[in-house]
Amino acid sequence: MVLPHSPFLFALAVGFLLSLQNARGQETGNAPALRPPNIILILVDDLGYGDLGCYGASKQATPNIDRLAAEGARLTDFYVSAPVCSPSRAAFLTGCYHKRIGVNHVFWPVSKTGLNPNEVTIAEILRARGYATRYFGKWHLGDQKVFLPTRQGFDHNLGIPYSHDMGSMVRVKKESGRLNPLHMRVVPVLRDEKVEELVKDVGPLMSVYEQELIEFIGASGEQPFFAMLAQHAVHLPNEPSKSYRGISQNGDYGDWLHELDDSVGRILAALEESGLDRQTLVLLTSDNGPAKKNNGTAAPLRGTKHTTWEGGVRVPFVARWPGTIPPGQVRREIVACMDLLPTLAAISGGSLSSVPGTIDGVNVAPLLLGTQLDAPPRQTFAYYQRTKLMAVRHGRWKLHLKAPDGRENVLFDLQADVAETTDLAADYPAVVRQLLDIAGPVRLDLGDGRKKGIGVRSLGHAAKLRPLFQATSHPSQEDE
Ligand code: MG
């Protein structure tokens, strides 16, 4: 579960990757230069496991994302740390279970807490390696200045610091110049650390982010870049453009996903036109499962966002790097969002020496690059919801310590029963004991409920609380 910070092992991983890259280049007669690849990480919001064509969807078409998978790798067992936004995003960026770094709940506007600035993010590791770094879209790791993307390794930021359903009420002037007595619910679009505008609808931002990302790609020159594009789609409320309404068989949700897929297609086209597609690793995934009230699906998995059924935390993940990742791979090993940090560090030749403590990610680069492995890089996954350890997985087995339906010690064979229908605990008591033995040290390290783990670090706290803009009221900080 824990990656040793051994410089020797790390150098070995980088050497392995570079030799593989060379070997692949020679095979194809088109050797990529020995420079770290550009990296584009596209994070879709609340996208379900079964919502892409390459994962079996039929209600909306996603040909461009399907092409990413066909030309690269598709993972069947990719997990996020938590079934909600902020904890999952914190885990993606830091290589740690959200529980380790104290991000157990979603952040609301004007929150005094956020991802601790002392945590080291993927962006900080890549920037130290010489990358230009950009953030586009929803952040959701704290809206106070000290928590913004620009304080976590991103050179520049354009986007909204939280979910677009967390708008604040402001008075707005009608065209006549009179104040609208009904007010309006808005969210702030930040350019770096300043509010550029307040918007009622986030739909138009999809193409704004796309355009600025394409400009960034075009201007990158010799410097490698890392861009994180965290689109607002397909989180409620759905806001597809007018021209996409009715295009899918799945309401506004499918329409918006179709629009997002087209946007991905234009980004891929821009990479190809710039001659950078063979030097660019493109990753696309989701922060958690589909919302119960929306039209997404986790099929064939059970459950939705907010649950630790597979459908809440197992999400699509595709990776494309032409000439380096062999096309058409489907990998069934367990991979988690915490694995991205050590993996991208290894791929870029970046250093983990600045990471302040233990991380939970393992380097899965050999797996992504198509190597057949004697043993999977990750054997176990711990399912946390907020602060509670809900389940553990080891290999094919998953034990719900407490299932979302309230049952305890429920055992599923995920290889034979991916929909978690048949409890096998009574048939396999030794497996139950084995998984309880795995849960013990996890609980000691990361904690469980009120019991604080010995390996847990603290959440960030802002010294002063300043709203980003004047509002008549901010949404209440309900616990989502
Ligand atoms: Mg989400």
Task: Walk me through this protein's architecture.
- With 480 residues, the chain is of the alpha/beta class.
- It has ten helices and 19 strands.
- Strands 1, 2, 4, 5, 6, 7, 8, 9, 10, 11 and 12 form an eleven-stranded mixed sheet that branches. Strands 13-14-15-16 form a four-stranded antiparallel sheet, with helices on one face. It has a two-stranded antiparallel ribbon with strand order 3-19.
- A hairpin with a 2-residue loop joins strand 13 and strand 14.
- The chain is globular.
- Mean pLDDT is 92; it is low at 1-16 and 18-33.
- Bound molecules: magnesium ion.
Tags for this entry?
11-stranded mixed beta sheet, 19 strands, 480 residues
What's the short story on this structure?
Mean pLDDT is 92; it is low at 1-16 and 18-33.
Specify the overall morphology: globular
Sheet/helix structural class: alpha/beta
Ligand inventory: magnesium ion
* Fraction of residues in helix: 10-25%
Total beta-strand segments: 19
Poorly predicted segments = 1-16, 18-33
Terminal CA distance reads: 28 Å
Q: What is the average per-residue confidence, as pLDDT, rounded to a whole number?
A: 92
Strand content: 15-25%
**Biggest sheet architecture:** 11 strands, mixed
Series of H and E elements: HEHEHEHEEEEEHEHEHEEHHEEEEHEEE
Number of helices: 10
Task: Supply Rg.
Answer: 22 Å
